[in-house]
Design a protein that fits this description.
This protein is an alpha/beta fold. The protein has two domains: about 190 residues, Rossmann fold (3-Layer(aba) Sandwich), CATH 3.40.50; about 180 residues, 3-Layer(aba) Sandwich (Rossmann fold). The chain has 15 helices and 13 strands. The protein has a seven-stranded parallel β-sheet, with helices on both faces. Strands 10-9-8-11-12-13 form a six-stranded parallel β-sheet, with helices on both faces. Helix 8 runs parallel beside helix 14.
Length: about 400
């Protein structure tokens, strides 16, 4: 029986959840009887993900002393001593998962390897190193990556990236970052984001707008994702935040007024630590009193969120996966990107003209683009219907590449 260990999964985020669900479903279809161990990262330790597939999950948010003991174990393992007795119980279970694994997969998440999240990058590389020490085949399942300007981390990156049997990124920008870092030593396969593999039928407007809300069914329905971005590296992050919030309020008020729209705010972060629903509520209360809006229950899972995006007529995405949720459902929209992964996705669609940098937003420019988008909406839907199947095939190719690695390992 095939067992896959999944490392570097990010928690409390509906986008990463959607990518994980799609990957598990794809592996299960391709490999009958496959089972999984998932190492998950939840700051809110009361949270757990529920899957249809046979998944044994283990946390990686552990006390610092656990990682110190893990470091000691790693040093001993590197010289041939498997001293599991130094590990706490949870890490002993993690090590047992490496023993059992036929393949170790680094999850389809954000650019954990790269300067953007350099503060905790070493932890993600540690789980890769364990796979190397256990002589397990490694597969990079189409995350983003880079940029790579940190001179302290680059030697580690150059050492461990080539340990993957196959390197796969979800867009061209990340692939170029990795190839430049490695000086052409390794080829990077470019597929597409894991979540793109899955499609969802729209949720019923009649059911969502039942009872005294029935009058909302015929309005222009807009799915909205906002981002309380911290603007790392900015000399005045608060001023940047204020400018973003003001621009988005202006855009949403104008869009709702001109088009008799109802705004559906969809939280991407949930739980007691990273929940962004309070921010969305606060932004909604800043809208004009005649603007129609609501915040969706943050407990709704990624599958339900994708059905709600598909129910809408238009979307505004300030986060990466909401742009995927909307566009893959053939719902046109604009993407406000804060990392290169979202721009790369819009380039794959051939719709980068509808992408805006979160660091230099202008409300007037976004409103003009939204006006053009609404005028071209039927043509854009046709464009998406032509592009989406190709992207879905590219995303599914990631699993086929992983299965090829498993086949070579078994041989």
């Amino acid at each position: 029986m095939t067992h896959i260990l999944i490392i570097n999964q990010h928690g409390e985020n509906r986008g990463d959840e959607a990518a994980m669900r799609a990957m598990l479903a794809s592996f299960t279809e391709a490999i009958p009887g496959v089972t999984f161990t998932l190492l998950y990262q939840f700051r809110d330790r009361s949270l757990r993900l529920k899957f249809k597939e046979p998944v044994d999950d283990l946390p990686i948010v552990l006390p610092p002393t656990s990682y110190l003991r893990g470091g000691l174990y790693t040093l001993l393992k590197a010289v041939g001593i498997d001293a599991r007795w130094v590990l706490p119980e949870m890490l002993r279970r993690t090590v047992a998962a490496y023993d059992r694994a036929n393949l170790v997969v680094s999850a389809p998440g954000g650019p954990y390897f790269g300067d953007i999240y350099v503060g905790h990058e070493i932890v993600h590389w540690w789980y890769v190193l364990l796979a190397v020490l256990f002589k397990k085949s490694l597969f990079l399942y189409a995350p983003s990556a880079g940029p790579f300007k940190n001179r302290l981390m680059n030697p580690i990156r150059r050492w461990l990236y080539p340990k993957f049997s196959v390197l796969v990124s979800r867009e061209e920008i990340s692939a170029r970052y990795i190839e430049a870092l490695l000086g052409g030593r390794c080829r990077v396969e470019v597929t597409a984001d894991s979540a793109i593999q899955s499609s969802f039928r729209p949720y019923s407007r009649q059911d969502w707008f039942a009872g005294d809300r029935a009058a909302l069914r015929d309005r222009l329905l807009v799915a909205v994702s906002l981002n309380d971005y911290r603007y790392p590296g900015s000399h005045d992050p608060q001023a940047m935040k204020d400018a973003y919030n003001a621009a988005m309020i202006e855009v949403l008020n104008d869009l709702a007024a001109r088009n008799h729209a109802h705004l559906l705010f969809l939280p991407q972060l949930y739980g007691r630590v990273h929940n962004d629903a309070p921010y969305l509520e606060a932004m909604g209360k800043r809208l004009r009193t005649d603007t129609s809006w609501e915040v969706v229950d943050p407990s709704l899972d990624s599958d339900m969120q994708r059905r709600l995006f598909a129910m809408c007529d238009l979307h505004i995405a300030s986060r990466y996966h909401p742009a995927i949720f909307g566009h893959i459902a053939c719902v046109p929209g604009i993407c406000i990107y804060y990392e290169h992964k979202a721009l790369g996705f819009m380039q794959q669609l051939g719709l980068e003209r509808f992408a805006f940098d979160i660091r230099s937003l202008r409300a007037a420019e976004m409103l003009a683009t939204l006006s053009d988008l609404l005028q071209q909406r039927a043509a854009l839907i046709d464009h998406l219907r032509g592009r989406v199947p190709t992207l879905q095939e590219r995303a599914a190719r990631t699993t086929r590449l992983a299965v090829q690695v498993l086949s070579r390992t078994a041989a």
